[in-house]
Design brief:
Order of helices and strands of chain B: EEEEEEEEEEE
Radius of gyration of chain A: 14 Å
Distance between the termini of chain A: 38 Å
Number of helices of chain A: 0
Largest sheet of chain B: 7 strands, mixed
Oligomer: heterodimer
Radius of gyration of chain B: 13 Å
Helix content of chain A: under 10%
Distance between the termini of chain B: 36 Å
Number of strands of chain B: 11
Shape of chain A: globular
Number of strands of chain A: 12
Chain lengths: 118, 113
């Protein structure tokens, strides 16, 4: 079974509108972390936002916020006021404390390609 | 500026040849990782290292080898045993303590013909 599922292969949004990118995860750990990365066409991976499983507040970083629903095991990324430069692949990733808790590995979803239209 | 460098950005090799991809970081991170990305796919973990002279296999280690002789460097060798080596390879590093993001290099696009 996939640990990270991103069900939207592609999404379109109009400039200045908000968009939500979906991410669901599967883990039996109580302690875990969820990360979102942006990958422009150039290929580099840019860290956007992090949510810890014990964090009571949803994470926010500028125009990015994470809609964390622990009981549903979802960690959706919300981008407000979309800009043309937001067009990129977006990956959700999870780090689990399992495996001894010391490996710091990330498991990635397959990504969502976001296109911002002018 | 601190960061991760990978060289070269594009690499071409003939089938049957081994090739080594470079990854250097000056972030003083203990943990380093190698990922492979195929078109339209997410990242898959090849190898990782948490400390000098130690490394572990990831999910798709077959046909690859690594070394970690220095904290700053984690080169990846793609051997002739790797059946489908053409891919985009990303190196990353992170601090070992706490819940920190992984920092990524710019990647190397390897084409084997």
């Amino acid at each position: 079974a996939q640990k990270i599922t991103q069900t939207q292969p592609g999404m379109f949004v109009q400039e200045k509108e908000a968009v939500t990118l979906d991410c669901t995860y599967d883990t039996s750990d109580q302690s875990y972390g969820l990360f979102w990365y942006k990958q422009p066409s150039s290929g580099e991976m840019i860290f956007l936002i992090y949510q810890g499983s014990y964090d009571e507040q949803n994470a926010t970083e500028g125009r990015y916020s994470l809609n964390f629903q622990k009981a549903r095991k979802s960690a959706n990324l919300v981008i407000s006021a979309s800009q043309l430069g937001d067009s990129a692949m977006y990956f959700c990733a999870m780090r689990e404390v399992g495996d001894g808790g010391s490996n710091y590995k990330l498991t990635f979803g397959k990504g969502t390609l976001l296109t911002v239209n002018p | 500026d601190g960061g991760i460098t990978q060289s070269p950005k594009y690499l071409f090799r003939k089938e049957g040849q081994n090739v080594t991809l470079s990854c250097e970081q000056n972030l003083n991170h203990d943990a380093m990782y190698w990922y492979r990305q195929d078109p339209g796919q997410g990242l898959r973990l090849i190898y990782y290292s948490q400390i000098v002279n130690d490394f572990q296999k990831g999910d798709i280690a077959e046909g690859y080898s690594v070394s970690r002789e220095k904290k700053e460097s984690f080169p990846l060798t793609v051997t002739s045993a790797q059946k489908n080596p053409t891919a985009f390879y990303l190196c990353a590093s992170t601090q070992r303590e706490g819940w920190h993001e992984q920092y990524f290099g710019p990647g190397t696009r390897l084409t084997v013909t």
